[in-house]
Amino acid sequence: MNQWAFVIAAYAVTALGTGLVSLMSWRAMRRAEAAAEAL
Amino acid sequence: MHRFANPARFLKIARPLTPWLFWSGLALILVGAGCGLFVTPADYLQGDTVRILYIHVPAAWLGMGGWTGIAVAGLMQLVWRHPLAAVAGRAIAAPGALFTAICLATGSIWGRPTWGTWWEWDGRMTSMLVLLFLYLGYIALANASARDGQGGSSSVTAIFGLVGAVNIPIINRSVVWWNSLHQGPSITLRGSSIEPALLWPLGLTLLGFSLWFGAIVLMRMRTILAQNKVEARMQRLARG
Prior knowledge:
Structural class of chain B: mainly alpha
Radius of gyration of chain A: 17 Å
Number of strands of chain A: 0
Largest interface: A-B, 23 and 34 residues
Helix content of chain A: over 70%
Distance between the termini of chain A: 58 Å
Oligomer: heterodimer
Shape of chain A: rod-shaped
Number of helices of chain B: 7
Strand content of chain A: under 5%
Radius of gyration of chain B: 20 Å
Helix content of chain B: over 70%
Distance between the termini of chain B: 36 Å
């Protein structure tokens, strides 16, 4: 198999994981801080 | 450190710092990864697969660094009763687990063309897998204590974080103590055995992922503090 296929797979896994955690953390923070400010 | 024990004072610093850490981290990751993919030469032996280095090494360091942070937070919680220590420990767990999983996945992908196998039960890979299980156990414990009304700050969670730290030197020394497919330590305090033409983008991705890690920890700490505030208000209302 072409070596670049392994490189692309490794970078894709990293981009997907960090992107998902960024989005989930940001959304959870916004929701929690909005609820706290609404008190 | 005790100056930041007041959550209000901590939030005053964390709010402007979060986007700064996130965007500067992301910029450094993109520049470092871009240079690692398209500027540096291929390795004479491994060819282009050596480019996985620029994400695999930061993931390994941050996976281990994250647990070291959890252990320090546990110590601060148990000894000094620092009110933000448990919050920090809980906030570190998710990005720490993520980087440990990324380290294992990218290592496996790198291993297939380099060693001819996706996985080998040797000291380095097995101890890193144990670290991932420790993270999952810590997250489960912290969530359970949060449900019990302790806000995820039970002493059991802190002790688990401290005891689990015994795995960090084992991971670090595993390639020295046991025969392994994994290469020996190539970056130490005495220098690096990696060719400088290949090494320099690693500094950019390492710093970038570290800043990104800090931004995620701050986001999760802010989430937990806001949830604790709502929970405290609900309990006061319930008591009348």
